[in-house]
Structures are given as structure tokens and as C-alpha cells.
UniProtKB/TrEMBL annotation:
Domain annotation Response regulatory: ranges: 710-828
Signal peptide feature range: none
Protein name (record): histidine kinase
One CC-aspect GO term: plasma membrane
Catalyses which reaction(s): ATP + protein L-histidine = ADP + protein N-phospho-L-histidine
Coiled coil: 411-457
Keywords: Coiled coil, Kinase, Membrane, Phosphoprotein, Transferase, Transmembrane, Transmembrane helix
Domain Histidine kinase: 464-687
Amino acid sequence: MTTTDGAGGWCVRLALIIVLIIGLGCGRAWALPPMQPIDLARGGDGVVLTDALWLHEETPGQPLTIAEVLQSTDWEATSPENLSSAYRPTTVWLLGTIRNSGETPLSRWLVLLPWQLRDVQLFLIDPVTGAVSTHQRAGLGVAREALEVAKIQPTFAIELAPGQTQTLLLRVQDRSFLGLTVRSVEPEAFVAKEGARRDLYLLFAGFVLAIMVVLLAWGDWRFTLASVWLGCIILFELSYEIPLVLSLWPGLRPHMISLFTISGALTIAVFALASLVFLEIYRNRAWRILYGILIGGILVAAFATPLTDETQLTRWVAVRLTLVIALLWPISVLFAPRRQGPYQWGVLILLVGCWLQIMVRIFTSTGLMPRIHDDVLVMLYRLVPLGLILGVIVLDRLARLSRERARERELRAIEEAARQALIDRQQEENLRLAAAVEQQTRTLREATRRAEESSEAKSAFLSTVSHELRAPLHDILGYAQLLARQIPPQAQEQLAVIQDGGNKLLHLINDILAFSRGEARPIILVPAPLSLRRLAAHLGEVCRPLAARGDNRLVTRVELGETEWVMGDEPRLTQILRNLLENACKFTQRGRIELAITLTDPWRTPDAAPSVWFCVSDTGPGIPESEQDTIFQPFKRLDRYQSVPGLGLGLAIAQQLATAMGGKIQVRSSQGEHHGSTFSFTLRLPSCDPPERQWDAEQRPSGYRGRRRTLLIADDFPTSRQFLADCCTAWGFRVILAVDGADALARFRAADPAFDAALVDQFMPHLDGWGFLRGVREADQGSELPVILISAAPQQRPEGYPESVQFDQFAIKPLSESRLAVILGDVLGLDWEYAEESSPQDPASPVALPASCTAAERAHFLEMLSIGQLKAIQQWAQEMAERDPEHRAAWSEIMHLCAVIDLPGLQRLARAAGEG
């Protein structure tokens, strides 16, 4: 029993000794300096923890473990001196205690500055057990995938439970760092602040780049030098002070040290070169050679930085050479040419400011001055070089201009002295000069008078051009209409080519004249009853062949409710929509084009004018957003569409006319396949009742009922006069022709019985249309005679002409046969008779689908024709010809109709197929 107790006593004593040894060891391991716990729950956001931490610096080449660091007694309070290590590889440990005194879990980030730190490790140690609860790594030397928090700055996530206390241990290893700072931030607030800061820096970078582009575009080599200078500074700032480059291109992490070293070297090199130029130090050969050697050396050292990444030797050399240049710069300024004038002194003062900023940068990079971490001060600091460089450029430019003006004044003084001497010697020369001055004065007065008459001359020129261009087209298109009734079907296609070409030329002339007239004077609108449904149908019929050439489908959509007739300028509105539709047809291939006319206020009051929305949309390639504001400029065409025919006036004219009507064309476009563009505008068009007489364009008059009327036609162009006569004679009128206004007035006075109406041109020799109208209205028997003005130019009322004297109707050339019939019907109140229209095809051999075509194939043909797929119809006809060679002639005729885009022929074929 005694033996057992003795053995047990020894075991107890041995255990106590072991516990005591462990306790002593632990007591020694945690014999740490006195530390006040940092309460993260009360600190708020952005609290600097550095001042509350202790620092221990490793001996170079002797790395320590966590246990060895905790056992060390060589801890010291942090200070600006031991928190910086300029261009010297150093490893320091930071120690502190953090606590969460709150009642809720706490989530914080620890952010270390400067952001260029290479390797930072975080250890959170339980103060009771001594166990490491958290271990994280960050820094430029750590792969992005291994980061706990993917931020550019070394950032660590900390989670503390309510009342929890942890020992914070940081290991910072880098080849060089300045102003080491540790901050506690709230994650969400930090992310928001970083995002706002990044946006601000992007805006700043964009602003500087815009200035660089402007300087480069100036074309002056001094401005180019300033642009390069700004580029080097912004590259250095965005890669060194501001981690914007790294945030945009994360793959540059391993090369950031080399990047900002090279950019900094380029900055000081360009500064030295700018000093040589703007201060004219290059005139001194010794300084020119010295600067060249120093600039070459700093550039070589900077670009060799990646080769000595471990030792930082070349980086150290580059910084020292930068310091040499900065120290020699004030001395070199003393050897510059003497400053003359305030502008040159201003350049010197601004360059001194640049030099001072470089010195500040050198002092902060070598640890001689503390770094700035305040965002506002940092941004102001970034703006300083921008203002200095721009100031240098402006003042240098002003200095050069001042020197040029001084030289000009010297030259003028010399010239003045010579002139005065010449005046003194020769009095007659003085008289000659006085006469020359008087002559110059008269010349200037005459030039002023001509300038005042410029606008009126332009208007008169436009009227003349309008008349001279439209008059021949009046004859071409008019006689083409008459020939269409007489020539055989085989020649109809050739005549259609003439008509199509003439209409295109007319449309082009109208565009040019409309644009020129809109610039010369305000656009005058002529409202008249207008059917929006008929307008949409007419535009669809006119533009569908053009759409079919690009294998497009053109559809019209009209949603007007009970509103159909409105008061509007139909020719101007047609010109706007046609220009928009033609653009859509030209730039869209194998897509869909839509013309939509809808009401935007169907619930308006009955007295309110309807608001009508006009929209042309397509599925074309779209317009870049950067060019959407410029497409309405005259003669503006996108570069990639230069091969497409056109003058670039269509959209400018459309916008001009829409503005005159009280609207504005808006464009929405997105690029990509089947995205397209949408052009739309809204107009207030008052409702109106339909006119009593409505013309059906599909019917052609053959005559009129009632007594035979007599018309007087006056036009100095024989062909135009004869076209009107041929049309009217074919309808049963008796026609009397006059070669000018005087001849027409004489025939009017001698007529018995009186004429029923007169058709006169505006501009004629001897007496124009206005003079004829005055003579008719002043005659007793002519006060009620309808006088119709038919002119190739807009109405130009002579100055002082009575406002009460008006033409009964006005028509612009070229005048179609149907339009002439409408005018005569309105003026004379005619009841027209219409002849049955015969098909242009030979009745003996009408075009029809072969009998072998099934009902399904006929339906397929009608469906393709309804959406305008002419190429698909042509391919279908070719396949049917191979399957049905017996009717190959009929299928070939259908392919021919598609090839020449004969929509009327295909529509007749469709009607025959539907009846069959």
C-alpha cells in the first residue's frame, strides 16, 4: 500500500512539473507587449488600425515562424519610419488584438495600403488556445484565384462572433513599401466607395484622353509633345498611385512593378525633353548632351527593371537618375535664354510647378515624405499636372503668338517709315494713295450691296433652276404617259424604264431644290384634304418594287379608327415618308420594312386635332449610336455605306420638312442581325370632311359629259404646250394655243364665245403668267374666267402685285395626265366618263398559271406575292418549269415578270389565279 502511494505521488509530481513547464513555456510564448484591444464594433467604417499595432522586423535571410514571432520580445510601436522601406527587401510582422463588443456577429475587411504590396499574410489566433483560426494571403505576388477577397488592395475578410476577441498577426513581405497602413472597413460600403472611385478615375482618364486627342489633332508638334507628356503621366498615375489599370486588366498583376517604373521614367524623360523645348535649353550644347545621357540612362534602367526584379537594382538606379535630373533642372534653367514677356515667364513658373510636383513624387517614393491617402486630396493632386501642362501649352502658344505679333509690328513699323519717307519725298504719291483708298471704299460698298442682294439672288436662281430642270421632265414624263396607250406590249418594258428613270430624276431634283429652298427661306405649307389610308397605299405601291429588289417584304399598317381625312400638305408629307422608305429599302436586305400610321390619342375630345404617329421601321444592319445624331446633317453618309447610291440629303430634307410641320423625326436603332432602325415623328393634323370630288387613280378618263368646253393654253415651250393640248384634245376639249402671255391675252380679248378656262405658264417672254392674270381680271368679260397656273417653279408673286388677284389653281411641273384631269374637273365641275382599261398583255395570249398547277401551289404563289418575295417566286417558277416542261413558256414568262419587277403583271396573274 505504501509502495503504491509512493509511485502515485511521483506520477502526480511529474505531471505537475510537466504542466508547470508547459505553462512557463506558454507564458514565455505569449509574453507580448501590452496591447489595448481594438473594438471593431465601435470603430465604424474606414478606421485606421496601424497606430494600435506593434511591429517586429525580421532579420534578412532569417525567416521566422508564427511561434518564433510570438516568442520574440523585440516588438516596437509603429511609426512612419518603421512602416516604410524604400527599395529595400523587408519583412515585418504587425501584431494587435481585435474584439467585437457588439451583440451581433461582426463582418469586416482589413485593407492594407499601399496596394502594391507583394505578399501579405493574415493570421487570427485564439488568445486562449493559441490555435490559428484564420489564415489568408493577398498581394500582387499571390495568384488572383487564391485570394479570399478578390480586390486589388491586399484585403482580408474577418468574422467575429458577439464578444469574441482574437489576436491579429500580419506578415508583410515586399521589396519596397512606403507608408504601410491597415484599415478596417465595412465590405458593402468599401465596395460602393471603390466603385465610385473607379468611376471617377475612369471619368478622369477619359477627360485626359480627350484632351490628348485634341492636342494630337491640332497638328502642332509641341502639342504632340504635350499629349505624350500627359499620356505618360496618366499611365503612371493609373498604374502606380491609382490601381485602375490593374482593375481593367487583371492579367498585369505580375508586371505592375515594371509598368509603373517604366511609366515613371517616361514621365521624367518627357518632362526633361519638354524643358529643353519650351525653355529653349537645347540651345546650350553641353546641357543638351547631359540631358540626353541622363534621359537615355533612366530609360535603360527602367526598361531593365524586369531583369532585376529580385534585387530592385535597376529600379533603384532609375529613381536615383530621376533625382539627379530633378536636382540639375534648376541649374539648367539658369542657362536658358532670358525670358521676355509675361507669357514666357508664365511658362517658366508653370514648369517650376511641374518640377516641384516631381520632387514631391521623388520624396514620397523614397520615404522622405509621407504619402497622401485622402481621396479628395489625391484627386486634386492628379489634376495639378493636367492644369500645369495645359497652362504650359497655352502660355507657350501665347508667347509664340506674341513674338510673331512683335515681329509683325516691327515689319509694319519699317513699312510705315518707308511709306512716310516716300510720302515726304513725293506729294503726288500721297494723292494717288488717297485715290486708291477711295476706290477701295467704293469697292467695299459695292461688295456690301452685293452681299445684301445674295439671298434674293439665291431665291431667284432656285426658281430658274427649278423651271429649267422640271420643264424637260414635264415633256418626258408626259409623253411617256401618252405613249403608254399606243405602243405594243413588247415595248412597255422599255417605256417603263424611261418612266422609272424620269421619276427618279424628278425625285432627286425635288430633294435638292427642297433642301436649298428650305435654307434660303422658310418653308410654306399648303394644307389640303388628305386621306391617310390612300397615302399609305400609294407609298406602299410606289416603294414595293424597290423593296423587292433587296428581297424585302414591305407592309403598311394604318390604325386610324374613324379618322381618315385630315388637313395636311400631302406633297411634303409624301416626300418625308418616301425618303424614309427609300432609305430603308436601300439598306435592308432579305428583311422586313413597315410603314405604320396610327393615332396616339384615340380618346381625344371631338374638337381636338388628332395626333398622328408616322413610323418607318426595318430589320436592316442598324446605325451606331455614336452616329445617330449626325445622319440628319446635309450630305452626311456613313462610311460603310458610301457604295450605296444617294446624295445624303434625304434625311436632312425629311427633318427639315417635319420641323416645318411641327414635328421632329426620332431615330431608334440597334446593330446586329434583324435589329434594324425605326424612324418616327408625330404631327397634329386637323380632321376634315372628304372632298366632294375624289379621283380614282386606277381609272383613266376618256371624256366628259355636257357641252364641249374651250381651253386657252399658253406656254413658251412648244413641247409642254403640245402635251397639254394632246391631253385635253383626247378628252374632247377645244384647244386654242398661245406662244406667250401677250399672245394669250390678245386671243382672250378676241375670243367669241369666251374661253371656259385658261392654262398658263408662269415665266414667258413679253408677258408672264402674272401679267396675263392681271389683264384678264381687269377685263369686263374675264373677271370669272378660271385661270390655272402650270409652272416648273413655285409661285413668285411680283413685288407690289395685288393680294386679291389669285390663280384659281396651281400645279407644279412635271404634270401627270391624272393630275391635270383632277384640276380641270375641280375648276370646271366636270362629270368624267371612263373607258374600260385593257390589259397591256396581248389578249390572245394572256399570262396565266398553267392548268397543271395545283390549288396548293396556286395558294403558295399568292402568299409569296402578297409579301413581295419576287426572288422566291422566280426560283419557284424555275423549279416548276423543270417539273412541268410542257408549259415551260408560261413559267419562263413568270420568271421574266419577276426579273423586270413587273408587279402589275404579277397582280393580274394573281387575280386570274384567284378566279381560277
